[in-house]
Amino acid sequence: MFKEFLDLGRQPIANAFLKEEDFDDEFFFDLKVCWDTDTNLVSIKNFVEPERIFNEDYPYHTSNSFPMVNHFKETAEMLQMKFKPKKVLEIGSNDGPFIKNFDKQNSICVEPCGNFAKITEDLGYDTYSTFWTTDLARDIIDQKGHMDLIYAANCICHIHDLDDAFNAVRELLSPSGVFVFEDPSLLRILERGSYDQIYDEHPHVFSVIALDNILRRNGLKIFSVDNLFVHGGSNRIYASHIDSGLVGDSVRQNINEEMIFGLDNFQTYEIFADRVKKSKDTLVRSLSNLRRNGKKIMCIGATAKSTTVFNYCGIGTDLIDVITDTTEAKQGMFSPGVHIPVVPRDSINLNDYDYAFLGAWNFKEVIADKEREFVQNGGEFITHVPQVMRFR
Ligand code: TYD
Which of 53, 65, 310, 358 is the pocket-test mutation for ligand 1 (most atoms within 8 Å of CB)? Predict the structure, then answer.
């Protein structure tokens, strides 16, 4: 049974940066968040059709976030050393920073966004430009055989029908194959109060408890878990066929930690919802006060997270003048819903601003390091994670 605990209001597609002429046709939906009493899965109530989100215009190029490029290179090298897979498949390969580390003859990409599928295809990797389903897995078995490593980063949590997605993996995975996937951790989101990681693209937010339940009912089991720093705290899940191999201590440790925090208890989610409402009030009050005192505020990182915060809190150009982002596809566009202009970093002088809100708070250290001069000139950063605060 699904129990609703959080209402993040009317939201646009978080990554649908748009031009002024498209303002009138913008799509919105009600972002409500529920907890499933049976599996402990946290999901959004009204799923948005994936075709609306993942299409030719999807702007998130992983290769533009250089910390992520390093992350995927290191991950690929580690998995190669550990499992020595002969055949590798990546679900949601984006513009290829992970798959690039594997040989072209034995590696396959699955990527529904045509713009990215073309990039990996041009690099020489066979790319299926479609959504991950059991039907597709069966086609791949016919054409390429079974896979030894199936990898997915920040992608499985995008898929509405998890039973079909996991069944597809089970069918395609070779008998001793491994399925490795990483997604933001529900525990870290609740600990940090980072409600902005829940949006249309993330219809599910995973705990290890919930994943263990859903994988098992699809013939797979988790044998190891790594806790990662990326995206403000993610879990890398290692799964295999249910009847193969041993389960490592990390699985029990993670489940215990989640139980102690109370992820199996509805009250925990009610407490989180309360914290989110307070975060909104504090952020709006504090930005409004600064603005009233004549201060200029901009935002660094036109992230899906910032879309969620700005729309939930009703923060627009009345409070934030401009957002900078390194992604070309977002530059010259307006942010979804609240329509703040997005510009390249070089096009503004940060010293013209008093405060920089961190839309990409998950890259706080990298950004603070790059923007030392802003701080030396008296500028301050603002973040809402883990609570609303200003810092230098
Ligand atoms: P990410 O945090 O992965 O965002 P999302 O919430 O959309 O999943 O993406 C970071 C965004 O921030 C990406 O659009 C690139 C941008 N960015 C900057 O503009 N400057 C920077 O220094 C860094 C590290 C990222």
Answer: 65
Residue 196 Cα: closest atom of ligand 1? 6
Determine the Cα–Cα distance for residues 323 and 333; give it in Å rounded to an integer. Answer: 10
> pLDDT tens, 4-39?
999 999 999 999 999 999 999 999 999 999 999 999
Residue 280 in tokens: 């909104």
Locate 149 and state its tokens: 């490593």
Residue pLDDT, tens place only, 242-267: 998 899 999 999 999 999 999 999 99
Locate the ligand 1 atom nearest the alpha carbon of residue 326 and give its number: 19
Residue 191 — φ and ψ, nearest 5°? -65, -40
- Taking Cα atoms as reference points, which of 214, 154, 142 lies closest to residue 15? 154
Q: Which amino acid is at 372?
A: R
Ligand 1: centre distance to CA 243 (Å) = 40
Q: Closest Cα partner for 107 from 115, 119, 96, 116?
A: 96
Q: Residue 300 CA: which ligand 1 atom is closest?
A: 19
**Structure-token match 């605060």, residue found:** 389
Quote the ligand 1 centre to 361 CA distance (angstroms).
Answer: 9
